[in-house]
Amino acid sequence: MADRFALQDAQYEFPYHYLPHLHEGHVRRSRSLRWGREYLCYLLFLVEKIRQLEPKTLLDVGCGDGRLLSLLVEVVPECHGVDLSPAAIRFARAFVPRASVAELDASQLSRTFEVVTAIEVLEHVPDPAVPAFLRTLAERCQPGGTVIVSVPTRNVQLTAKHYRHYDEALLRQHLKDSGAPLKVQELDYVYRQPTWLRTLERAIDNRHFRLEIGALDRLLWQHVWKHLRSASAADGHHLVATLRRS
Q: Using 50, 70 and 90 to split pLDDT, how confident is the model at 10?
């Protein structure tokens, strides 16, 4: 009986019962994230960067459903996350029980951490609140610690849910205007998407059908990780700033 329970329990690596759902009057048996390769690319890039820092404590501000934390709980002894979305926090608690997550503003915390991350969060902050948000990141970071901020670049079309996208000049200006004791140590541009790949993504994953071929998926991921992960200011989709807290 224990073996059978273990087999069933192993299925809950992902909540598969939620895959089938009704959509526009018919049953869908899968859910797709067209930009999943891009997302995983910069997520794993961030995980590698954080691994190199070897922190004992980490706070992810705007942690969402805890996806980044899920990749860090094995390597960072103490992982924390905060988000203003109660729905996101419910998922984070369910999916990453080893992390401590809370529905609150980071400014409400009193302690500090070796590493503080804000991954694809700053673009959601209204303009008047940006300086205070950046100061909060610095306040939550220990002196001598590291703050990592990731933002979409102006190479990516602005979406309705974002206030702005960034280039290096704008990010540096926002840091300067905030007065936060954060010094830029490193800037990385992550992920570029050539026209052929964008066309292919739309052809095999669209509102009418989704084509999934294992061999093709493996080849595409290998190409993305080896050749498209590193980018430049001219074509990068994400700007990752590694900041030192003075």
A: confident
